[in-house]
Amino acid sequence: MLRNFVLPVVFLAVLSASLANTSTGSVELDEISFNKVINKFEASLVKFDVAFPYGDKHDAFVALAKDSKDVDELLIAEVGVKDYGEKDNEVLAKKYGATKDNFPVVRLFLKGKNDPIPFDDSQGFTTDELRRFVRENTGLYLSLPGCVRNLDKLAIKFMKAKGENRKKVLKETEELQKEFSEKEAKSAKIYKTIMEKIIEKGDQFINTEHERVKKILSGKVSDEKKKEIGIRINILQTFHLYDKQPNIPTKEDL
């Protein structure tokens, strides 16, 4: 009787220790569980890193895992690689171009696609950049700085509409704007302006405007201006999510 009782207790203790090493909201994968788990999700964002990661980049990844806890279609996971002993997960990491010389490496796996999409951290390895990367390549909703959920819904509704129906959505946006706080009202003004320009110039405005503001951002601008432009890019991306027909269809209700 005692033996039967001890074994489950020992098992639970080991399990608890394993979970303690896993970031909140993130799942720890290995060479055995990797394919079994990621194949169950529409999208899986995986970080290949040292077995016991730390630092700003790891913190940024952890923050995204916490922020996306309610997005059921998205898995946030980590593969810890050991460079000692039996070198756990080293072969799996190398398969996706990750070694101790370039850790951490992030890959986005999409259901039904053979090759993952690499995360380019040249613009920074931050929570916002990771969030933007996931949104751009999946169409899944992850809030970005400056974006407002209700306005994001209207932006996608606007892109799906045609002709006079777009003017109706613009009117909805103007009405909703009256209910916002001062901070949200600033963002609402950007949504409204983009809608007006699309009605005037066509859907191509999204790409041309995106390139224009990116060019400004690459020059010498103040930190405050960078923040303003970053918000504009984030809002433009919401319109772009539907326009580019992402790999995972954007839900009717974000």
TrEMBL record:
It comes from the Eukaryota. The keyword Nucleus does not apply. Residues 159-186 form a coiled coil. One of its GO terms (cellular component) is endoplasmic reticulum lumen. GO terms for biological process: protein secretion. Residues 146-239 form the Endoplasmic reticulum resident protein 29 C-terminal domain. This is Endoplasmic reticulum resident protein 29. It comes from Bombyx mori (Silk moth).
